[in-house]
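Quick start: what a row looks like.
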Amino acid sequence: MTDFRTWMTAIQGRTESALDRLLPSAATAPVHLHEAMRYATLGGGKRIRPLLCHAAGQLFAANTDRLDIAACAVELIHVYSLVHDDLPCMDDDDLRRGKPTCHVEYGEATALLAGDALQSLAFQLLAEQGGDTSMMAMLAQAAGSRGMAGGQAIDLAAVGKNLAVEELEFMHIHKTGALIRAAVLLGAQMGNADSGAQKQLGRFASRVGLLFQVVDDILDAEASTATLGKTAGKDAAQNKPTYVSLLGSARARELAGQLAAEAQAALTAFNAGGERLAELTDFILDRTF
């Protein structure tokens, strides 16, 4: 088997090439909007969700070209959410992936439309190139009021409040975890995963989704802006409840380790076949340390 770093670089490259191909050309009208969509999407990010999609799909012998479509659909939803989250009416940030945010570069109105168009393109890709209605419904739920958008609404309402850990977990199961879960299950569904395997992968994805958020909270508190590629310390500055603000750094790190172990345990049913997903779990955890 190819070593993890080589595999990861190859999937990231595939995803970048596929996104470049599937996004509208910057030469196509409306040029300004298409430029903004490409600016927000290309040339940045670790592509964690596409990596999870491909790893789950490979576990179930999915066609790699079909996995590209599922991976890009999830990534487009993720990018649209970042574009909107950075707007002044949301988190009001001016740096993303090491460059000015979309609204800083192209204006708020164009950024809003770029996010809308990226979301629409995600579903267009699934509809036209290999997805079925159940996959589209899963992605729609993950992105909607019972998923990512709902989690963001809870996040905005929580500013300045003291949440219990259980409340914070509920928020992030939706805001962060729902789309990560969709990435894993879409990959599996592109292959031959049966309902039992999908249920087990759902357990894995629920732990990995929370792990990703705990690590994100630690990084926001401890890493530099240069390292993150986005404004560091923003959560504390905006008085947002995080795992670090509730638990402290040491206990947040312990929780990250626990979630990683639980994710790994959910993969034991797949024996050696779950190795890529296990390696991705370690990669997500090790972003902190």
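That is the whole record. The chain has one domain: 4-286. The domain at 4-286 is CATH 1.10.600.10 (Farnesyl Diphosphate Synthase).
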